[in-house]
Design a protein that fits this description.
This protein is α/β, with parallel strands linked by helices and 192 residues long. The protein has six helices and eight strands. Helix 1 crosses helix 2.
Amino acid sequence: MVHIIYDGSFIGLINAYNYIFSNEITPTLIGRATNFQTNFLAKEVYINSEPNNYEQFLLFLTRKGLKYLEEPIYKTYLASPHGFEILIYNVIQEHLSERGEQLFWKKFERIIKKIDKALIQLESGIRFKEEKGYTFFASISPEYNLLPLLAKNLTKKFPHTWVIYDEKRKYGLEYDLEKLECIQFSKLAHAC
């Protein structure tokens, strides 16, 4: 039994996959350090976040013809459904195997469709209010952590200075027509 533990960041998660596939490990569990319960029967491997390993894993996906998984992996990370880390591992493993089974892919695909649907609903439902200094403000509380995905579209579609605040996750994004910045409203926010 091998348990892979990462810091909770997206780069940390990708570093975990890089470690797993580089060392040909079959993990029984992959999880965030903040949610992890020690199991004395399992070998626990703690993964550090290193940008070089992140790039190395993206190259691995590209070499294996799996570059198209990069965005769905990020979306699934943002949504963080229960057990998503091991699901992503199983999807990658399934695509690497020659057997052609797609049991995990179908579950993964359903999650991505839910996220995409929630993103469309959120995007169409945002109502900005003009604040002092000609900055527009919107407060949202989506089921999933969609703010990074939403911002990508809003910077193109809404050419004004704006701030969007995610009430559930206690962080926001500020756009000033030139750059997009994360604004953390508490120490609990880890999304940026």
